[in-house]
């Protein structure tokens, strides 16, 4: 059985980049940190990540090639401290979310160990274009 790709559908033209984005995102999806995605209005969403132990300076949020990328890296100060038990690791992470055209990043807020990233979607107007046919 062969794998179906967007390119194997003859009526879907120019979606090769979307397919690459989906494959890349599927490869980087792990379970940490856990997150929620909620719809906050007709044209707005909020991504919330559980980032307990991370400060604002430990986190970075970028948009790279139509992907929202959230990274966390805690400073490892274990050399300065003596642990009798270490159950909380200084763990780094990277979470990626593929963005559709028209999605804009709003503000990012960290509170009570949760990072909230607000997104808005601008719906493009429907455009009808008539193509003239000429004799060859």
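^ Assign residues to that structure.
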């Amino acid at each position: 059985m062969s794998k179906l790709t967007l390119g194997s559908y003859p009526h879907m033209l120019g979606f090769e980049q979307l397919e690459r984005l989906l494959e890349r995102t599927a490869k980087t999806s792990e379970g940490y940190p856990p997150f929620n995605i909620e719809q906050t209005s007709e044209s707005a969403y909020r991504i919330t990540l559980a980032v307990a132990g991370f400060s604002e300076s430990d986190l970075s949020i970028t948009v790279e090639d139509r992907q929202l990328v959230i990274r966390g890296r805690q400073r490892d100060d274990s050399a300065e401290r003596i642990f009798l038990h270490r159950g909380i690791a200084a763990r780094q992470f990277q979470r990626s979310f593929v963005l559709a055209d028209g999605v804009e990043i709003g503000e990012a807020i960290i509170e009570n160990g949760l990072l909230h990233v607000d997104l808005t979607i601008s719906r493009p107007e429907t455009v009808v274009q008539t193509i003239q046919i000429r004799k060859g």
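Residues 1-29 form one domain.
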